[in-house]
Amino acid sequence: MKGTGSKNAWALFLLILTGIVLGGFIGMLADKVPALSWLGYGQSFGLDEPVVMNLGLLVITFGLTIKITIASIIGVIISIIIYRFL
What we know:
By secondary structure, the chain is an alpha+beta fold. The chain has one domain (about 10-85). It is about 45% helix and about 20% strand. The protein has helices at about 10-30, 70-85, and strands spanning about 40-45, 50-55, 60, 65-70. The strands form two sheets. It has a two-stranded antiparallel sheet. A two-stranded antiparallel sheet has the order 2-3. A hairpin with a 4-residue loop joins strand 2 (about 50-55) and strand 3. Helix 1 runs antiparallel to helix 2. The longest helix is centred in the N-terminal third of the chain and has 22 residues, at about 10-30. It is flat. Keywords: Membrane, Transmembrane, Transmembrane helix. Pfam families: DUF4321. InterPro entries: DUF4321. This is DUF4321 domain-containing protein.
């Protein structure tokens, strides 16, 4: 059982996820501003075309693409700092 002073791992996960989403959103908005366009710089990786598994009765499609930008990295760093102060 966890002690009363231990931090919750789910809280860290949710904060990091929030930092990624908000950072990606800010990066998309910053692409349109010339002075802040560097925040939207990043790399996208994953499956270009989804993998389809046809089982006759059931069709399952697998696909995942991740885009990491400077703004999302800054968002993750800020979320970890916030977690340390909680």
